[in-house]
Amino acid sequence: MRVLVMGGSGFLGSHLCDVLIARGDEVVCVDNLCTGNEANIAHLRGSPRFRFVPADVTDHFDFTEPLDAVADLACPASPPDYQRLPLETLAAGSHGTENGLRVARRHGARFVLASTSEVYGDPEIHPQTEDYWGHVNPIGPRSMYDEGKRYAEAVASTYRRTLGADVGIVRIFNTYGPRMRPDDGRVVSTFITQALSGTPLTVHGDGSQTRSFCYVDDLVAGLVAMLDAAEPGPVNLGNPNERTVAELAQLVLDVTGSASPIRYAPLPVDDPVRRRPVVDRARDRLGWTPRVPLDDGLRRTADWFRTRIPVPVAPRS
Ligand code: NAD
Ligand code: UDP
């Protein structure tokens, strides 16, 4: 296959490029590097089956070579990133996704949208199945991301319903692993960076809010399964192993052996109280289940961060 990966220099996108190249596909990676990093794809640059195109997907773009699939991951994804780039985030969910759909349709290619558990907002239904419509504040400080993705789902569904486009939607729950930016502000990268540098772990609120954390290799296997399927979705992709943020902090201290204290900080506005995917649909329709346990995934992630963070671990006494 020849696959266009929009946002391919980011955390998830670069791992997707790796898996596609490893199985023999050709990959065109389009990215404007607004939150991504060229280092994530540096090792692929020598491959004749990999091409990097520095471009903003919200601008008009097209390719002369044939395409079999388009994966749309081009969007700032961490709360500090999308709040720093609010209009760009809305543009990615609207113009960016529309451009990807247009290109996919012109090439007769399958289009897979990387949507998010954030379409469920602060959910009133727990755990979340795909038929839940969500509870999103349309004018709140997370709305540029949540509503951008809801629009992206709407336009992708409209292409499928009215134009017969081959479109699939995955809703990704919190995913972590190597290549997250240490300063991206997401909880796993932040806690690991703090633990490894011996600074306090900043737990928001009382730490009782929950998330369900999926290791990147599992998540990318689900993305590839969706690219290869004819499934329209939406399909939840995530690890249903739900933890409080306070439990996560303790686990990070345990796997890193850090003596960092915990410091409590204010809970951000509209921070969802709980989040856990039902992944039966992914199992039944894609044959996908997450496999990597949280402590194992955190250990692998911390090992990678250790090679990036020069400050020594503060040992436990
Ligand atoms: P990321 O910020 O590392 O990756 C996003 C990539 O898209 C970056 O390389 C960025 O430079 C690029 N990009 C953004 N806007 C662009 C534009 N206009 N033109 C070209 N490139 C652009 O984030 P990630 O965690 O890898 O997320 C990838 C996708 O998966 C996003 O769409 C995100 O919404 C979705 N997602 C991720 C998670 C998660 O936990 N990681 C959860 C839910 C959904
Ligand atoms: N969080 C935290 N400390 C941090 C960063 C995040 O306690 O330094 C919390 C955040 O408020 C939220 C959870 O961890 O309750 C997950 O945050 P993240 O930004 O990783 O993902 P999202 O909120 O988008 O699910």
TrEMBL record:
Lineage start: Bacteria, Bacillati, Actinomycetota, Actinomycetes, Kitasatosporales
Pfam families: Epimerase
Lineage top rank: taxon: Bacteria
Name of the protein described by the UniProt record: SDR family oxidoreductase
Organism: Yinghuangia aomiensis
PANTHER family listed in its UniProt record: UDP-GLUCURONIC ACID DECARBOXYLASE 1 (PTHR43078:SF6), UDP-GLUCURONIC ACID DECARBOXYLASE-RELATED (PTHR43078)
Domain NAD-dependent epimerase/dehydratase: 3-238
Cofactor: NAD(+)
Keywords: Decarboxylase, Lyase, NAD
